Amino acid sequence: MIENKTKYTEFIKTEAKRLGFLSCGISKAQFLEEEAPRLEAWLNKNMHGEMRYMENHFDKRLDPTLLVEDSKSLVSLLLNYFPSEIQNENAYKLSKYAYGTDYHFVIKDKLKELLSAIQDEIGEVNGRAFVDSAPVLDKAWAAKSGLGWIGKHSNLLSQKTGSFYFIAELIIDLELDYDTPTTDHCGTCTACIDACPTEAITEPYVVDGSKCISYFTIELKDNIPSEFKGKFDDWMFGCDVCQDVCPWNRFSKPHNEPLFNPHPELLSMTKNDWEEITEDTFRKVFKKSAVKRTKFSGLQRNIKFLKH
């Protein structure tokens, strides 16, 4: 049986690589004891702002066996999205993860393929695929699986590839060989804390979500509070500042996923183009993009906030 466990583990990691994942780590599906008090404290301090959904399914967020019956293993996967080119310098900025096709679709397809490859090879394996659309603590599991450590900006970091990647999971009812966590390599560096335009990183490893530019430009449905005027550094959808300044991202290499390539018009658009964007152009440029989450009206609100 132990031989099988190792064989299955190797098979899953090889398949993940074939499907284009950057890396794959595996943890035992069990209650996340260390994260429980941290998550509770973060919610109690209201650091999730209007993101009320963060309060739901508290137990499920910490225990994968409540999401998938009889689950034994949690397979964490990273998919690179670092672009080879970035936007025009004179433009309102878009988080790099939103340049191409919405990652939910891209990753879901890859995960389905991975799960069916596992079932074809091993037989009856039950499981579910997750791409940050369910109550799973992605970063905590990826760190537990040895794929990196959680940096002071609260993103997962790896020495080889920095932090510009998506995290996804398969939770399955199959016992496998488990990986061990890696060590923290942030050291005394405070680049992300010093650079955050809205001072959202309140202390090392703690981000007040309700002060984050990504929260204001994507999640918040009301008007952006006026005290943040002039502090957005031209970010109109999401924000990459804490990742851009991180020394580990010197090692980011461009992705090779054609679906993550931006619409040809996107990179050349100037501030003026963004200010005059029509709903038709918005639909064309962001046809399958994550930017649709904020809707045309939301993007207009963000641009207006930056402009005045």
TrEMBL record:
Biological process according to GO: tRNA queuosine(34) biosynthetic process
Signal peptide: none
GO cellular component: cytoplasm
rRNA-binding among keywords: no
Keyword Hydrolase part of the UniProt annotation: no
Entry GO MF terms: 4 iron, 4 sulfur cluster binding; cobalamin binding; epoxyqueuosine reductase activity; metal ion binding
Location of the protein in the cell: Cytoplasm
Cofactor(s) it depends on: cob(II)alamin; [4Fe-4S] cluster
InterPro entries, sorted: 4Fe4S_Fe-S-bd (IPR017896), 4Fe4S_Fe_S_CS (IPR017900), QueG (IPR004453), QueG_DUF1730 (IPR013542)
Pfam families in alphabetical order: Fer4_16, QueG_DUF1730
Residues the record marks as active site: D132
Start and end residues of each 4Fe-4S ferredoxin-type domain: 174-206
Binding positions for [4Fe-4S] cluster 1 per the UniProt entry: C186, C189, C192, C246
Top-level enzyme category: oxidoreductase
Pathway membership: tRNA modification; tRNA-queuosine biosynthesis
EC number(s) per entry: 1.17.99.6
Function: Catalyzes the conversion of epoxyqueuosine (oQ) to queuosine (Q), which is a hypermodified base found in the wobble positions of tRNA(Asp), tRNA(Asn), tRNA(His) and tRNA(Tyr).
Protein's name in the database: Epoxyqueuosine reductase
